[in-house]
Amino acid sequence: MGKILGSGIQDGLLLKPINYQWAMDLYDQAVANTWFPNEIQLAQDLADWEKMTDEERHAVTFLMSYFNPNELLVNKALAFGVYPYVNAAECHLYLAKQMWEEANHCMAFEYVLDTFPIDREAAYSAHVDEKVMAVKEEFETKYIKRMTEDTMDITTTEGKKDFIRNLIAYNIILEGIWFYSGFMVALSFRQRNLLRNFGSLIDWIVRDESLHLKFGINLILTVIEENEDLQDPAFAEEIKQMILDGVTMEEEYNKALLPNGILGLNADYINQYVKYLTDRRLEELGFEPHYNVSNPAKWMATANDTYELVNFFESTNTSYEVNAGNAEAKLKESTDGTEQEPDENDDK
């Protein structure tokens, strides 16, 4: 079996034999999960929007302001920081599908901006004007720039470390913690019987992101396993500190997201969920939990069970699968950051 890393243009041009079955399984499931934003009747949520408080509308707008540009930022991290340095064809297939999904998520958030009376110009500028968003974006772009603006040699130990750092920054911290924190806030409205169709849109995005997270974690662990020079306690500690720094930034972001709190939700609640998520991500990477806090949003386990959700207005299953017979198996959904008793790594 060849190593997963490399930068040979003529390598990885043949799919069979497959060396990394987990990547092929994720590709098959991603294809089965294909969806389009306008299949959700989002306009039916407008009546809810009108009766929501200013603080609630601020929270939704804040989330859109953050999610929209960062979906495209993830694509830059994939295109410049991952795809060129992976040789396996099955990984290229999945990354291509993931990049389409990030574009589709961007269009989903555009659909929200088109439907709800949100000031698009203000929403677009917030990721620069809002300090808590700008700090997070600067953190992410610092790692992507190492891949795009500096010369990176994937055959060197430092080059391989930069590859892992980029994956940690965009996949574990941005997608696996920051995005999931926002998903929880977005789905909290449905807990109060508000924005149910918006919730269905988020469900579909969460389902995609759970696969993105699985791929990234598998890729990180495979690269480390195949490269003994990365099995360095000092490097492991650096990675862990990166993740903890991400938590600090997210705590400040959530204070700006909900400065006064809304019914049933405030910044402290969200930040406890962030710490709970972070412990799960640390465990998935082989670390011990750091915060040891309970999950304050146990309802997320139900909210994210997208295989059984039914759209409230249309009574259509929001979890349909395209070409589902092609997916080799239902993949474990242990990456949703929710409690799964007794063993959170067991299949649902």
UniProtKB/TrEMBL annotation:
Residues 324-348 are annotated as: Disordered. Its EC number is 1.17.4.1. It catalyses: a 2'-deoxyribonucleoside 5'-diphosphate + [thioredoxin]-disulfide + H2O = a ribonucleoside 5'-diphosphate + [thioredoxin]-dithiol. GO terms for biological process: deoxyribonucleotide biosynthetic process. The chain crosses the membrane at residues 167-189. This is Ribonucleoside-diphosphate reductase subunit beta. It comes from Candidatus Saccharimonas aalborgensis. Provides the precursors necessary for DNA synthesis. Catalyzes the biosynthesis of deoxyribonucleotides from the corresponding ribonucleotides. Residues 336-348 have a biased composition (Acidic residues). Its cofactor is Fe cation. Pfam families: Ribonuc_red_sm. The keyword Membrane applies. It comes from the Bacteria.
